[in-house]
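User: As part of a screening pipeline, I want to sanity-check one entry by hand. Below is the sequence and the SMILES for adenosine-5'-diphosphate. Please return the complex as structure tokens so I can compare it with the automated output.
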Amino acid sequence: MSGAPLIQLNDVTKVYVTGAIRYEVLKGISIEVRRGEYIALIGASGSGKSTLLNILGCLDVPTSGHYHLEGEEISAKSDTELAHIRNRFFGFVFQSFNLLGRYTVAENVALPMVYHGLGRRERLDKAKALLARVGLGEFTGHYPSELSGGMQQRVAIARALANNPAVLFADEPTGNLDSKTGMEIISLFEQLNAEGTTLVVVTHDARVAQHARRVLTLADGRMLTDKQNSIAELTGA
Amino acid sequence: MNPFEHLRIAFDALLANKIRAFLTMLGVIIGVASVIMLVAIGEGAQTYIRKELMGIGTNLLIIVPGKTETTGMGRMPSGIQKITIADLRALEKRATLLNGLSAVVVSNAPVKYQNRLRNVEIIGTDQNFEQVRNLHAEIGSFISKTDVDAQRRVAVIGRTVRKELFGEANPLGRTVKIGETKFRVIGIMESKGVTLGMDIDDHVFIPVETAQAIFDQDGLTNILTQAINENTIERAKEQIKAIMMQRHAGEEDFTIISQQAMLSTMQTILATFTYVLGGIASISLLVGGIGIMNIMLVSVRERTREIGLRKAIGASQRDILLQFVIESVTLSVIGGIIGILFGAGVAYGAKAAFPVLPVDVSAWSVALAFTFAFFVGAFFGIYPAMKAARLNPIDALRYE
Ligand SMILES: Nc1ncnc2c1ncn2[C@@H]1O[C@H](COP(=O)(O)OP(=O)(O)O)[C@@H](O)[C@H]1O
Ligand SMILES: [Mg+2]
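Assistant: Here is the complex for your manual check:
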């Protein structure tokens, strides 16, 4: 884990203004994300985890502060450039799987490649390979509604991996799953990280935090702790 | 991103909701079909009238008594001096730009053969009528100069008159009674059918001076003549005017109607008629567009999460905008194509069923309806698409 960080945030704030009320959701966050890391982002509900994740993933922009992606400031980027960054650099996994019901599983996985400009053939071939990688090689022609929640989330993970992203962001990926299927997702993350995928996972699930190499704790919009392997050591895993 | 991909996304979305897509299209289908049908009727009527007017003889000029202000049909005689055979003789002698002159007296009278009777319009005319009016006797002969000069009691009858009075019998040489006067049938006219609402076949032609005598008229209903060619029509009219005014004490108490003027007046009326019909139909197309906008707004709302997801995985605002605009254009264009096929089908179907119906689906109306449908989709799709494109991905993903 050497060289320039993949992502660097400097004193990032996020303020929402609703009518006369100002919500300062992030109050000066400075962190680095390096290649190959597996980061868990934990904290109380409302502490700003999702907001931070969205900013890291360029789905949202900071109110102030700096964001460097591979050393390049992104605050002046246009909508199209940010869309391009999300498409090429990042993959997203959400608590609710957000699969499109009118497409097959393989077509869902291929969706990011549509915006990458790949032809249909190539997309579907790659999608099938990705589905095999998350253990769903048999289900490429099925529709999402025919799959269990855990399987749907694995489809969503395969979709997030479609364009070989530099970072995979997940917001409460096990939140809608029972603990057994949740564990399957955790193992899959473990496996992906071992294969070199950088992961940033927002979670309430202590098991995710246990498996992560680094744990960031947010409290009321501030970074409370930033520990390497801490919980894993504490629990003696 | 390849625009073809946007088209695929649009088709997938529409196919996922076929009945709704069809109902949305229905407005455009009805609008386009009615544009096509109404314009077809309007255009067909124009073609029909043009053909009819051409049929009465090119370069035809009609001199009628009384002054009218319009160049077209219909006149309001101010009842001054009559037009006479002497006027015709003067024109014959002095007008150099005319090709034949024919005197016409029109009156109604009962025509009787044995026990059969028919009320017919009697046309008193002369030997030049055949050439000027482009109507010929098919059997026997038409009225000759001698017939006119000698005031002979001879008649040339139309097809309908022949059928009604004689049935299958040969009328040539037979005697009919027009009013109280006996006439010998010397010819039968070729069949021309109805032109401009006048049934040529339902007429009887007799020598002009004979007609004047039996109907007790010294004037003429009109004088028919022809300009020697298309380019001299205006000059021929000037010539007629000069000669006639000299004879009528400097008064312009007559009107010269040209076939050209009638043609252009009719064309103008019918073109306006076509545009008005097309315009009314276009309003229904516009209503169809509003239907599309309505459904697209619903669709954007329903697919809020999809839009958020697409943005998260790399769709730009432009991609989302294009996706929805292409979807609405696809709706309106498919609706337009169905409407064109339907409208043209009905128009040609009507023509096949009723061959006299003047119907003509023109390329321009198809092109216009199609273009209009396209722009209706684009115009009414823009607003919903912009709403979609501007959605904040985070809010959109959180949307229930
Ligand atoms: N668009 C918004 N407008 C106003 N307040 C918001 C908005 N989004 C989030 N918040 C507020 O910001 C705070 C942090 O939200 P979030 O980042 O979702 O927290 P977490 O994911 O840690 O539960 C919450 O109090 C939430 O109500
Ligand atoms: Mg959250």
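Points to compare against the pipeline: Residues A 16, 18, 23, 25, 43, 45-51 surround adenosine-5'-diphosphate (ligand 1) (CB under 6 Å). Chain A has a mean pLDDT of 92.
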